[in-house]
C-alpha cells in the first residue's frame, strides 16, 4: 500500500515536471511557425450572446492571418467593470474590452482607454462615407471630448410590448400617443389592469419624454436641465399614472416582464434586447407584439443603450492595429447584420439595416421590427465623467417619486443640483 | 512542558521562523491593505491607476460627512446593528437552551438550524425575495391569517430595513446556536446538582447558573455579531438586486463604500468611509471589552 502510494507520488511528480517543461517549450515552437498578434478581448456576453460573440471571433480569425482574437467572458457588466479596474491597477488589461458607453468618459479620464482617432483617420480607417453609414445616435456614443474612444457594437433601444389578448378583449388599438394611453387607461384600471408597465424605474421612459419636447436632461456641454418645466411635466404625468393605477413599476422584480406575462399590464416598456428574454418567459398561447414607443406632444424619441468596444491604454501598436481591424470587422455591414439577427441587438449601420438579409430576418421575426423601426427615433444621452453617479442619483430620484411620493418639482430640483455638482466635481 | 528559562537568541529566531509564513500572509493580505487604505483616505488628488498623489488633506472626510447619503448610510447601519445583535444573541441563546433540553431528534434540529450558515448569502436572499413578495410571498400569507394587510416588504422604503434585519437575524442564528450549545455543555453538571439540592427551580438555575457560566461565550458571540452587522453588504446587494433598497432606504456604510469605489471612482472617499467604519467598530468593541470586564466570568 505504502509502496504503491510512493510510486504514484513519484510518477505524478515526474509527469508534472514533464508537462510543465513541455508547456515551457511549446509557445516558442509555436511562435517560430507563424506569429499572428494576439488580441485579447474581455466581454460581458453570456449564454446565447456569448455563443454569437464567439462565432464572430471565429469568423474574424478565419478571415485573416495577421491577428488572432481571444475573447473571454468576464460575467455581467458590473463584474466586467470591476475586473477592468483591477486589471488597470495591476497593469494586466486586455487589448480590447466591452464597456457601456456611459462608462467611457470615466475610463478616458483615468487613462484606462486610448482614443481611436489615429486608427479611424488612418489609411485603413473609416472614410466619411463609412462614418455616414453609421447611425448618428450610435456614433455619438463613441465620442468623448471630441475624440473617438469606442466602437459601437451591441446596441439596443427602448420599445413597447403590447398584450394583444387584452387589447382585443377591450376593443383597443395599439396606442400611438401618450394621450391614447391616457384615454384607454380608465377602462383597464376598472378591471385591475395597469395599462403601462415599467421596469423597476421609469427613468429611460422619462428621458425619452423629455427628449420628445426638445429638451435634454444633460446636454453635451454639461448644462443640466433636469428640472425644466417640460421635464417636471413629464414626470408628473408618469407619477399621476402610477397613482391612479394606470401604470405600475416592476419593483423588486427589476424588469416588467413578469407583470406583462402575467397579464397585470397591457403595455410594457422594455429594451429591444430584452424581447428575446420575454419570448422565453411567455407561455405558447400568449398573444403579444412589439411597437415603437408612443408619441409625446407630437414627437417620438427613445433612448439607445449601447455596449461598445474600447481599446485599452496598455495595448501596444501592433495590438492596437489588430484591435481596430477586429472592431472594423464587427461593424461591417455584413457582420453587424449577422450579429443583430443572432442576438436581437440592432444593426449599427444604415446599409445593414436596409440589407435584404436583415429585412428577411425581420419578416421572419416580426417581434424584432419595433427595434429596427425605432432606429430613426433613437438618441443617446450625453455621457460625461461621473455619469454613473448621475445615474445613481437619477434612479434614486425616480425611486423617491414612486415610493415616497415626493413631488416631481422638488425631487427633480434636487437631482438638478446633485448633477451640477457631479459634473463640477468630475471636471 | 513549560519553559521558564529566558529564550536564547537562537531559540527566538527559531520561533520567529515558525510564525514567519503566516506573518507574511497576514502582512501582505491584511496589514498592507489596511495601512494603504488608511493612507488613501488622505489622498485628495489621486490617480488610482498610476498611484500619483497630487495632494493630501482631510477633504475626503469633510466631503463624506457633509453628504446626506453618508448620513443615511451611517444611520441605517446603526439601526441595523441595534436591530440585529440583541435579538440574534437572545434568540440563539433561548433556542440553544431548548435544544439542549431535548434528546429526541436534537441532531436533526441542530442541522436544520445550522443550514443557513452553510448556504450562500445570494441563494438565501433569492429565497427571501420570494418570502417577501407582496402578492405571493409566504410572509404576507402568514400575516394575512392574523389579519394584517399585505406589506410590500421589498418596495416600501419604510419596511426595507426591517426586511433586511429579519433576514440577517435568521441567517445568523445557526452559527450562534452552535457556539451556545458548546458553552452549555461545558457548564459543570455538579453546580446544577447542588442548586437542585438547594431547591432552585429550573428558571432560577438558568438565570443564576447558566447565564453567568456561559458569559464568555455570550461575549464572543456579541462581539462577532456586532462586527458582522457593521459590515453588512452582501445581504443588501442580493436582496435588492444590486440596489441599496427602495429609494436608498437600505443604504449601509459598506454599500456606500462599494458605490464610491466601484461606481463613482471616488477612491479617497471610499477609503475614508472604510476608516470611519474601522473607528466605529473599534470604539464599540472597546466599550464591549470594558463592559465584559465587569460582567463576564471566566
Automatic annotation (TrEMBL), chain A:
Record InterPro entries: SBP, SBP_1_CS
Signal peptide: 1-32
Keyword field contains Chaperone: no
PROSITE patterns linked: SBP_BACTERIAL_1
SUPFAM superfamilies, A to Z: Periplasmic binding protein-like II (SSF53850)
Protein name: Bacterial extracellular solute-binding protein
Gene3D superfamilies in alphabetical order: Periplasmic binding protein-like II
Gene Ontology CC: one annotated term: ATP-binding cassette (ABC) transporter complex, substrate-binding subunit-containing
Protein family membership: Belongs to the bacterial solute-binding protein 1 family.
Keyword Secreted attached: no
Keywords: Signal, Transport
Pfam families tied to this protein: SBP_bac_8
GO biological process: maltodextrin transmembrane transport; maltose transport; transmembrane transport
GO MF terms, alphabetically ordered: maltose binding
Amino acid at each position: 500500500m505504502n509502496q504503491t502510494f510512493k510510486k504514484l507520488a513519484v510518477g505524478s511528480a515526474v509527469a508534472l515536471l514533464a508537462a510543465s517543461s513541455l508547456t515551457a517549450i511549446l509557445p516558442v515552437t509555436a511562435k517560430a511557425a507563424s506569429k499572428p498578434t494576439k488580441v485579447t478581448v474581455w466581454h460581458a456576453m453570456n449564454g446565447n450572446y456569448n455563443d454569437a460573440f464567439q462565432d464572430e471571433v471565429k469568423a474574424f480569425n478565419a478571415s485573416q492571418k495577421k491577428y488572432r482574437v481571444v475573447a473571454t467572458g468576464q460575467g455581467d457588466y458590473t463584474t466586467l467593470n470591476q475586473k477592468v479596474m483591477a486589471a488597470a491597477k495591476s497593469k494586466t488589461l486586455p487589448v480590447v474590452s466591452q464597456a457601456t458607453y456611459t462608462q467611457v468618459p470615466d475610463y478616458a479620464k483615468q487613462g484606462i482607454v486610448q482614443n481611436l482617432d489615429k486608427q479611424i483617420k488612418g489609411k485603413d480607417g473609416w472614410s466619411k462615407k463609412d462614418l455616414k453609414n453609421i447611425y448618428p445616435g450610435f456614433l455619438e456614443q463613441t465620442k468623448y471630448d471630441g475624440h473617438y474612444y469606442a466602437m459601437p457594437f451591441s446596441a439596443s433601444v427602448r420599445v413597447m410590448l403590447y398584450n394583444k389578448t387584452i387589447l382585443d378583449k377591450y376593443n383597443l388599438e395599439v396606442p400611438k400617443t401618450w394621450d391614447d394611453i391616457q384615454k384607454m387607461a380608465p377602462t383597464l384600471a376598472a378591471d385591475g389592469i395597469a395599462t403601462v408597465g415599467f421596469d423597476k424605474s421609469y427613468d429611460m421612459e422619462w428621458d425619452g419624454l423629455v427628449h420628445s419636447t426638445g429638451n435634454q436632461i444633460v446636454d453635451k456641454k454639461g448644462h443640466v436641465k433636469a428640472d425644466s418645466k417640460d421635464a417636471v411635466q413629464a414626470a408628473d404625468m408618469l407619477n399621476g399614472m402610477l397613482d391612479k393605477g394606470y401604470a405600475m413599476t416592476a419593483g423588486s422584480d427589476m424588469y416588467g416582464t413578469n407583470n406583462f406575462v402575467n397579464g397585470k399590464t397591457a403595455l410594457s416598456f422594455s429594451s429591444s434586447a430584452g424581447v428575446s428574454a420575454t419570448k422565453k418567459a411567455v407561455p405558447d398561447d400568449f398573444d403579444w407584439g412589439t411597437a415603437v414607443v408612443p408619441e409625446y406632444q407630437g414627437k417620438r424619441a427613445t433612448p439607445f443603450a449601447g455596449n461598445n468596444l474600447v481599446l485599452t491604454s496598455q495595448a501596444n501598436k501592433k495590438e492596437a492595429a489588430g484591435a481596430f481591424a477586429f472592431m472594423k470587422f464587427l461593424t461591417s455591414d455584413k457582420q453587424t447584420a449577422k450579429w443583430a439577427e443572432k442576438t436581437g441587438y440592432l444593426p449599427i449601420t444604415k446599409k445593414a439595416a436596409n440589407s435584404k438579409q436583415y429585412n428577411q430576418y425581420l419578416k421572419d421575426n416580426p417581434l424584432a421590427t419595433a427595434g429596427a423601426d425605432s432606429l430613426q427615433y433613437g438618441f443617446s444621452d450625453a455621457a460625461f465623467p461621473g455619469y454613473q453617479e448621475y445615474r445613481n442619483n437619477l434612479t434614486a430620484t425616480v425611486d423617491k417619486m414612486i415610493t415616497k411620493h415626493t413631488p416631481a418639482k422638488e425631487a427633480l430640483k434636487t437631482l438638478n443640483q446633485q448633477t451640477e455638482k457631479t459634473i463640477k466635481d468630475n471636471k | 512542558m513549560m519553559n521558564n528559562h529566558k529564550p536564547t537568541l537562537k531559540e527566538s529566531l527559531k520561533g520567529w521562523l515558525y510564525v514567519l509564513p503566516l506573518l507574511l500572509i497576514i502582512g501582505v493580505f491584511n496589514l498592507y491593505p489596511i495601512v494603504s487604505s488608511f493612507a488613501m483616505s488622505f489622498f485628495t488628488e489621486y490617480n488610482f491607476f498610476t498611484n500619483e498623489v497630487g495632494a493630501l488633506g482631510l477633504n475626503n472626510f469633510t466631503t463624506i460627512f457633509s453628504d446626506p447619503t453618508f448620513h443615511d448610510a451611517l444611520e441605517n447601519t446603526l439601526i441595523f446593528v441595534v436591530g440585529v445583535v440583541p435579538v440574534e444573541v437572545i434568540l440563539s441563546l433561548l433556542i440553544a437552551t431548548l435544544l439542549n433540553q431535548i434528546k429526541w431528534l436534537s441532531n436533526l434540529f441542530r442541522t436544520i438550524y445550522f443550514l443557513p450558515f452553510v448556504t450562500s448569502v445570494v441563494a438565501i436572499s433569492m429565497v427571501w425575495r420570494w418570502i417577501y413578495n407582496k402578492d405571493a410571498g409566504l410572509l404576507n400569507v402568514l400575516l394575512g391569517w392574523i389579519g394584517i394587510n399585505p406589506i410590500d416588504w421589498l418596495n416600501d422604503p419604510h419596511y426595507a430595513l426591517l426586511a433586511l434585519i429579519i433576514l440577517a437575524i435568521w441567517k445568523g442564528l445557526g452559527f450562534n446556536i452552535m457556539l451556545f450549545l458548546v458553552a452549555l455543555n461545558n457548564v459543570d453538571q455538579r453546580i446544577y446538582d447542588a442548586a437542585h439540592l438547594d431547591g432552585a427551580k429550573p428558571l432560577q438555575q438558568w438565570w443564576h447558573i447558566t447565564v453567568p457560566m456561559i458569559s464568555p461565550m455570550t461575549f464572543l458571540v456579541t462581539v462577532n455579531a456586532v462586527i458582522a452587522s457593521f459590515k453588512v453588504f452582501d445581504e443588501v446587494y442580493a436582496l435588492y438586486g444590486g440596489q441599496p433598497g427602495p429609494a436608498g432606504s437600505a443604504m449601509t456604510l459598506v454599500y456606500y463604500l462599494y458605490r464610491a469605489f466601484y461606481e463613482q471612482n471616488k477612491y479617497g472617499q471610499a477609503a475614508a468611509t472604510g476608516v470611519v467604519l474601522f473607528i466605529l467598530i473599534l470604539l464599540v468593541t472597546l466599550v464591549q471589552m470594558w463592559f465584559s470586564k465587569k460582567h463576564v466570568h471566566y
